[in-house]
Model the fold of this input.
Amino acid sequence: MAIPIYIIGAGGFGREVLWLIREINAVEERFEILGFVDDNEELHGEVLCGVPVVGGDEVLANATNVAVAMGIGIPSVKQKIIERLESRPLQFPSLIAPDVKMSEYVEVGEGAVITSGCILTTQVSVGDFAMINLGCTIGHDVKIGKGATLSPGANVSGYVTIGDFADIGTNTTIIPGKSVGENAIIGAGAVVIRDIPARATAVGNPAKVIKQG
Done:
């Protein structure tokens, strides 16, 4: 029986998550898509990619026996939404594209999203509500924290740790054994060759911290 599911966020990534769910359903009919939930009242009643925007947070206030997919990529925004939703009686299934390659030694938390073209090797841990976008590679013994986002084309080498709600930019490279702290931001195209502290912003090749806290 298909699980009723709402998608949080009707922006670009939310519509990509809709596509992902449809790709999953093409292999096995797992979800009944109920609509987008978005706090932008201007979108309420709109139909995007054939799916209605049914309302804001009030839609989920008393919802039971339904699932929620996180269609928000920005970790700082996602963190606030998760804090509101986690205590509610909702399901948070992980969503993994059918073409993702990963070993049996990968652990994926609830609400995590792994999109098309990604490779995850062995002894990898993907935290709750983490998002791994198109074409990322994740080496062995990597830990990706809760709510972290990896943008398209990120390459994460072995023994890397990525903290909760960290934001890893498009085409970032992280060399083996380095860590990125919680709520840190790594700019697009950066090459991380040293540990990046929590709540820091780092850019460039090699990546340098340009803002702290």
User: Anything to note?
Assistant: The helical segments are 12-27, 58-61, 75-85.
